[in-house]
Fold:
Amino acid sequence: MSETIQQQVEQREDEQIVQQGVHNFSAEDEWVKPDRPELLEQLEWFKDQKLGLMMHWGTYSQLGIVESWALSDVDEEWSRDSVDWDYDAEELKQQYFDLNKTFNPLRFQPELWADLAAEGGFKYLIFTTKHHDGFCMWDTKTTDYRITGEQTPFHTHKYADVCRHLFDAFRDRGLAIAAYFSKADWHTPTYWAPGMERSNPTWRGPSYNPQEYPELWEQFVQFTHEQIMELLTDYGRIDVLWLDAGWVCKESRVSQDIRLGEVVEKARGKQPWLLSADRTVGGPYENIITPEQTIPSEAMNVPWESCITMGTSFSFRFEDKYKTTRQLVHILMEVVAKGGNLALNVGPQPDGRIPEGAIARIKELGAWMGTYGEAVYGTRICAPYFTQRCAFTRKDDTVYCTYLYPSEDTCVNDNIILPYTEKVTAIHLIGTDEKLQFHSDEAGLHVKLPAHEVGDKAPIAHVFRLTAN
Structure:
């Protein structure tokens, strides 16, 4: 199969993954607008950022398998598909929990991560402080199951408190911090308590009914609150508390009320700008809607963010295949044209480095954003939004159209039709700032490209600046 055909096949597969998604996300008409001016201001700031770097990193990176989910017996059909060795379920779970004893990412350099993110055009970091497996990537006082715990060989390293050093490095380069935190914790005995009715087989919820064991559940609630307050008190400015495990809520089939509002409001006493993304739950603490591995079919005029992987998995996988820069730009522009941010996920290696393939993509994306970022950052939605080939955005009185080419073999015509029917007095080509000839009719704007832009290989996109004054 030729390289071009192979890229097209992979692109179709990636697009199918993005379109299918992982689970449902909250509806636009159910979004609850905050009534506090500082939160409304922070939401406008969030909508300006457009591109965040998401990173799933923990002990699971050593095996190159999906984060946490192999621990849940009821999810084994999909979560253990990469476990290609003979195993006993109970032994596998114990082996997974024991990965802290061998996790030693000696090549972790937070400053290099932050430099790369800044070069890539990212504006904020979303980092897994704790996934469902309960392993904490900060120096928590609530459990020994942490990166600074004595059983973890990395605990003596100068960067052992990963969250502290990572957050500081990113903030030093002007990037904001979103703290990913799982509301579920499959390691603590106050959530997965041994010897209970749901202890074996394990599932994603608690091993007991919280209504039948209220004292045990209250211990878990206090444990969760203490962890959240550690992060929101001792780790500098946090702009977003990004909460996963949507089944942990009062409305769940097995009610799991952790009194989230109580701890978020307590945290806002210290950080009044704090946004809460209580994903898939809805209500006043889901300030940001977070589709996963999908893009909404229509534009949404509320704060939202699609978390999409650069490779095939949120966690690190050996020999992973990364989306092309063309694919990444096209995903970004569809997300932005529909009013969202893109949280592009990269899984770091177990040794603490970012994979070379991901580094190359990040740098290429950053180069593209360095030229065309004005059509991305700080923009808002603009009809007709997204039309497969055209992504429209607006900044004040300026409209941008990013004309996308599916592959480098796509024919580049010297005349392009932009389906925009509002009044336009001038069109400039971003990158060269050339003023272009055009005329308009009921189909839109007929734009004539300069001769030097018409060649054998199509660019990722042509980006046009449309003005009406």
Remarks:
- The chain has two domains: 3-375, 380-467.
- Residues 214-234 form the longest helix (21 residues).
- The chain is about 25% helix and 20% strand.
